Amino acid sequence: MLDETIDTERIYALWDELSDFEASRMPEARVHLLSVVCDMIDARQADWIGAVRLVDNIHRDPLFGWRPRSLSALYPDAEAARTIQEAFALMEKGEPDITTIRNAELAGQFRVFMLDELATPEWFESYSYKTFYRGLDRLDSIWVGIPINADAEIQIGFHRALSQPRFSERDRRIVTHALRGIRWFYRLQMLSEGIGVASEPLTPMEGRVLRDLLQGLSERQIAENNGQSPHTVHDHVKRIYRKYGVSSRAALMALWLGQPIPP
Fold it and tell me: Taking the model in full, what pTM does it have?
């Protein structure tokens, strides 16, 4: 039985709204999802992280090979982005904090954690909490882990400011119900970034070219849209095909739609 305290009709409407976004508009669709869920739980900010599992030293690595490869915030802030990149750098050095380790331990399954479930009491007095939470005006968070395949995940964090109360169990239930049933959406999001489904992540320009390709624009039109020469755009297109392991626009579209790739 569904929780009567959750606005299930709004959640179902959200899923319908997401399905109406064209494949070329995945960034806008992501913003819409985060905005609606933030409104439902009164969160002030949300982070979206694409993570991949590297194959080297998995058993000796505190994060079991997992590393963040992309970050976007609902409300971009340059200073916050620099601070979060500091946290990412610590992960790359093999020095993650306990909240990140506990999250990585359960990678591979859908999970929703309150911040105090990931942390120890002592952690709330640590450098990590003071820098990466209080320093960013964050009192509390709900973290969601969403597996895409064996080596790729999306992690979403919803945050409340220092002036707000902590999240409740009802907030957790809303987040769980809203984010659980849309695996198709996360797959398209990962495709749009090339995180975990391409040989290398896409550059920002390649991402713009990809969206134009999916809209059916010619390379000349894409060049005009992005202020580049047709030759430069053609080079971007070739790199995109190589990263996705395809050789034509038809094959790229088939990959996007989950259809057999033409020979």
Answer: 0.84
